[in-house]
């Protein structure tokens, strides 16, 4: 996490630079460099090393009163700004102070959004779009015309437009070949304009974080393009961006100053709405419960209710792919008899990441960001299972 600094500058009220008041020049310069905050304070009384005592008393009104400028931002940005000031600041005092940055509302969309968004023009062809998606590993591609947002493209849109008939037993290589075949043979003329969804939910740079969260959850969207009044694309916000922002601007070992409905510890945030099994449970008997679970996962416990491992739906898929060259036939065997019985202990993950029930929200957010995970196991010091914290549930708590 970046540390924060306060840059405090002492100068005289009459100090000038480029025929302007020096304090006004510095204030405007801070704004131009997008520093987070700056305040100019006019002193009641004071003195410097080269002056007499100055005061606002009417008899001494002609004296040069002290001006204090306070600027707060991340350490690296403050140091960069300080180097600029040094080029023209010849007389006065500059002080650097360490500060503890607290997280407070309002946080605006413009603070959170990613500004460098990968996008395409509406006349871009399908082949170029596919290459862009694969190269940059993106799942969401805004379509623009003269900087104005026209629509968005997702992987689902592409598959639907090229009429790709997915087979359940396709390997990754075969899937790539089939996509390439369809693109080259039938759909070379498709453009971004043909592929895109035109009805796009958007947000605006001045939206506050609570409004962004409500809007994303009410509309069940994971990504929110940010536009101005002319519908020009300014940035993009994802749920991961929101958590990353919270993690970046808060201490991992301190409580966040957020208006949560309830719950600031792992135990309070955790859900128990998922199936539990013995590690000796047969895989085919556990599949239905895992797939019906809202979290698409199950937890393996021993007789003492100690957690031994976790199983995700992706582990089941991997098991069937690895165990048979024909996934469809293997799935059919679930309802019959398997050639070789296998148990959850054969596929469960034992290297899961966990936290203690009393762990605070700040630490939890940092774990989600640093580890790139969506679900976090909660267990006590005796390894007794206490629940699972889901990444999106943290965002729900902000609503």
Tell me briefly what this model is.
By secondary structure, the chain is of the alpha+beta class. It has three domains: 4-99, Alpha-Beta Plaits (2-Layer Sandwich), CATH 3.30.70.120; 109-248, CBS-domain; 266-397, CBS-domain. It has 16 helices and 19 strands.
> For the largest beta sheet, what order do the strands appear in spatially?
4-7-1-8
Amount of helix = 25-40%
CATH class of the largest domain: Alpha Beta
Instruction: Name the CATH superfamily classification of the largest domain.
Output: CBS-domain
* CATH-scheme architecture of the largest domain: Roll
Calculate the terminal CA-CA distance, rounded to whole Å.
25 Å
Blueprint of the fold:
Blueprint: E1 4-12, E2 16-17, E3 20-21, H1 22-32, E4 37-42, E5 45-46, E6 54-55, E7 66-74, H2 75-85, E8 93-99, H3 109-112, E9 120-121, H4 126-136, E10 140-145, E11 148-154, H5 155-161, H6 172-185, H7 192-195, H8 209-218, E12 223-227, E13 233-238, H9 239-248, H10 266-269, E14 276-277, H11 283-292, E15 297-301, E16 307-312, H12 313-323, H13 327-332, H14 344-347, E17 354-355, H15 361-371, E18 375-379, E19 385-390, H16 391-397
Helix pairs in contact: 9-15
What would you say this structure looks like, in words?
- This protein has 399 residues and is an alpha+beta fold.
- The protein folds into 3 domains: 4-99, Alpha-Beta Plaits (2-Layer Sandwich), CATH 3.30.70; 109-248, CBS-domain; 266-397, CBS-domain.
- Helices cover 34% and strands 23% of the residues.
- It has 16 helices and 19 strands.
- The protein has helices spanning 22-32, 75-85, 109-112, 126-136, 155-161, 172-185, 192-195, 209-218, 239-248, 266-269, 283-292, 313-323, 327-332, 344-347, 361-371, 391-397; strands spanning 4-12, 16-17, 20-21, 37-42, 45-46, 54-55, 66-74, 93-99, 120-121, 140-145, 148-154, 223-227, 233-238, 276-277, 297-301, 307-312, 354-355, 375-379, 385-390.
- Strands 4-7-1-8 form a 4-stranded antiparallel beta sheet. The chain has a 3-stranded mixed beta sheet with strand order 9-10-11.
- Helix 9 (239-248) crosses helix 15 (361-371).
- The chain is flat, with a radius of gyration of 29 Å.
- Residues 51-62, 164-170, 251-262 and 323-339 have low confidence and may be disordered.
């Amino acid at each position: 996490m970046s540390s924060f600094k306060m840059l405090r500058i002492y100068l005289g009220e009459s100090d000038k630079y480029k025929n302007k008041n020096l304090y006004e020049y510095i204030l405007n310069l801070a704004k131009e460099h997008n520093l987070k905050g700056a305040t100019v304070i006019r002193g009641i009384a004071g003195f410097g090393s080269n002056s007499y005592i100055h005061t606002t008393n009417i008899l001494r009104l002609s004296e040069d009163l002290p001006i204090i400028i306070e600027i707060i931002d991340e350490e690296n940005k403050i140091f960069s700004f300080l180097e600029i000031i040094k080029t023209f600041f010849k007389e006065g005092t500059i002080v650097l102070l360490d500060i503890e940055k607290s997280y407070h509302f309002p946080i605006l969309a413009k603070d959170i959004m990613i500004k460098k968004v990968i996008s395409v023009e509406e006349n871009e062809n399908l082949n170029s779009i596919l290459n862009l998606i694969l190269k940059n590993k993106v799942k969401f591609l805004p379509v623009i015309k003269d900087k104005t947002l026209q629509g968005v493209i997702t992987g689902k849109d592409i598959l639907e437009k090229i009429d790709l008939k997915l087979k359940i037993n396709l390997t990754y290589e075969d899937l790539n070949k089939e996509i390439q075949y369809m693109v080259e043979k039938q759909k070379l003329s498709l453009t971004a304009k043909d592929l895109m969804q035109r009805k796009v939910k958007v947000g605006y740079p001045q939206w506050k974080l609570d409004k962004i969260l409500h809007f994303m959850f009410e509309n069940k969207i994971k990504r929110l393009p940010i536009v101005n009044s002319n519908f020009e694309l300014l940035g993009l916000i994802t749920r991961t961006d929101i958590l990353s922002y919270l993690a970046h601007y808060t201490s991992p070992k301190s409580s966040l100053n957020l208006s949560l409905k309830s719950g600031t510890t792992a135990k309070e945030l955790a859900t128990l709405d998922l199936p539990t099994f013995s590690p000796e449970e047969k895989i085919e008997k556990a599949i239905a419960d895992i797939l019906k679970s809202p979290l698409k996962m199950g937890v393996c416990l021993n007789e003492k209710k100690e957690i031994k491992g976790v199983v995700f739906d992706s582990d089941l898929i991997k098991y069937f792919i690895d165990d048979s060259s024909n996934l469809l036939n293997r799935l059919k065997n679930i309802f019959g008899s398997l050639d070789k019985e296998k148990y959850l202990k054969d596929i469960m993950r034992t290297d899961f990441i966990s936290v203690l029930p009393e762990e605070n929200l700040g630490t939890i957010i940092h774990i989600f960001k640093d580890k790139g995970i969506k679900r976090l196991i909660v267990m006590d010091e005796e390894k007794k299972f206490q629940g699972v914290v889901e990444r999106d549930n943290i965002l729900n708590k902000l609503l």
